[in-house]
Design a protein that fits this description.
The structure is a single chain. The protein has about 375 residues and is of the alpha/beta class. About 35% of the residues lie in helices and about 15% in strands. The chain binds nicotinamide-adenine-dinucleotide.
Length: about 375
């Protein structure tokens, strides 16, 4: 199947990789992106094939949307444009709500003005919507309160269950785990899901929501200090610095390689939803931050990571997901093991450093219009 796809935020990490994938099989791809300086500073060129139409525009700005929809009437829209700084969203809530929430309603209003109903809307949502997620103590499943500052100061790392019995986190699964966002970024991502679902239902079209775990790999921003523990560890380990691991090292995440995420999005586009769906996308393998640090340090022959007992308010203790529903519904399967993906990321960071020293390549931002 092919057709025309508009990718918002398509100059970013995930969007540009998806655009490259789509053109290889004949999709007509347009990208709407504001080329946000927090993401696109530095020397990382915007890596889009010449056949991709790059339309610089701001998703919060109605005239930009109207111009985009005059230039293309996509059969599918993949909505990726977002402010993604979890910690930053606490002090810049309006900016996050404006881009993530109002940017989504502007998309919907512009479709209404253009009287255009795409065959499918695809949203990259986030595992952040689950907050601390569901935990189990004995046979009892519960949703813990966010960990308080006092609790973290006391070094009580696991969320507390009823009766303070030992508890273990469960893999999140959209079909059974309640979303309970505990930070502003997460709340805006959940709002995006609800807004798109309401519009899709009313217009008799379909929505695919993919809740992504921690995505890493070549192409991720190396200059945006607000995202990406993997890129941060990789940068520090390459400089032979020892990695600081927070809490007791046993924060759990699911690190999923960029190519696996692109294949999941691609599968969602190729096999449009027959009814709206919400799926979790990860590697399916939980990893502690200490294990991640050990692997990165090992590959770079950097000093042993140190578990420092520091913490960040608002971090969740565990995030991992069940990927069987996505495997079944998308006929998709993650292929990249963590070590292999980390090696590929580290090679790419080295290539970037070499490129920077050889030549200063900049992609000049363009005004709204065809490329
Ligand atoms: N990377 C991850 O680990 C991860 C995990 C879960 C969910 N997601 C979601 O995936 C999507 C893409 O993430 P990413 O990692 O590629 O981020 P990214 O920051 O690399 O890309 C986002 C793109 O959106 C653009 N953008 C920002 N504000 C905009 C605006 N007002 N108008 C138009 N474009 C704008 C930026 O210029 C950037 O190119 C986001 O919606 C994010 O919430 C990412």
């Amino acid at each position: 199947m092919s057709g025309s796809v508009l990718v918002t935020g398509g100059a970013g990490f995930i969007g540009s990789a998806l655009a490259r994938r789509l053109v290889t099989v004949g999709y007509e791809v347009a990208v709407m992106d504001v080329l946000h300086p927090q993401v696109h500073t530095g020397h990382q060129a915007i890596d889009l094939p010449p056949s991709v139409r790059l339309l610089t525009g701001d998703v919060t700005h109605a005239p930009d949307w109207d111009a985009v929809l005059r230039l293309c009437r996509p059969s599918q829209i993949v909505h990726l444009a977002a402010e993604t700084g979890t910690a930053q969203s606490l002090s810049e809530a309006t900016r996050h709500a404006s881009v993530n929430v109002v940017g989504t309603t502007q998309l919907l209003d512009s479709l209404s003005r253009a009287a255009h109903v795409p065959d499918q809307l695809v949203l990259a949502s986030s595992r952040a919507v689950y907050g601390e997620g569901a935990w189990q103590s004995g046979s009892h499943i519960f949703y813990p309160q966010p960990r308080s500052h006092a609790q973290l100061v006391a070094g009580i790392w696991d969320p507390q269950g009823p009766g303070h019995d030992a508890a273990a986190p469960l893999s999140s699964c959209a079909g059974r785990t309640e979303p309970r966002p505990i930070n502003i970024y997460a709340a805006t991502k959940l709002a995006q899901e609800h807004l798109l679902a309401a519009w899709a239902t009313a217009h008799d079209t379909n929505l695919s929501v993919l809740r992504l775990q921690n995505v890493y790999g070549p192409g991720q921003s190396l200059t945006n200090s607000y995202t990406g523990i993997v890129a941060l560890f990789a940068r520090l380990a390459r400089e032979q610095r020892s990695l600081e691991v927070y809490e007791d090292g046993r924060i759990v995440r699911d690190f999923v390689y960029i190519d696996d995420v692109v294949e999941a999005l691609f599968a969602a586009i190729e096999r449009p939803a027959v009814q709206s769906r919400c799926l979790d996308i990860g590697s399916g393998t939980p990893t502690t931050i200490h294990e991640l640090a050990l692997q990165v340090a090992g590959i770079c022959a950097a000093p042993e990571p140190i578990v420092v007992g520091k913490f960040r308010d608002g971090d969740v203790r565990a995030a991992m997901c069940a990927i069987e529903p996505a495997k079944n519904q998308l006929a998709w399967c993650p292929r990249w093991a963590l070590e292999e993906g980390l090696r590929r990321l580290l090679d790419w960071i080295s290539e970037q450093a070499e490129l920077r020293s050889a030549t200063a390549e900049h992609a000049a931002p363009m005004k709204l219009g065809p490329r």
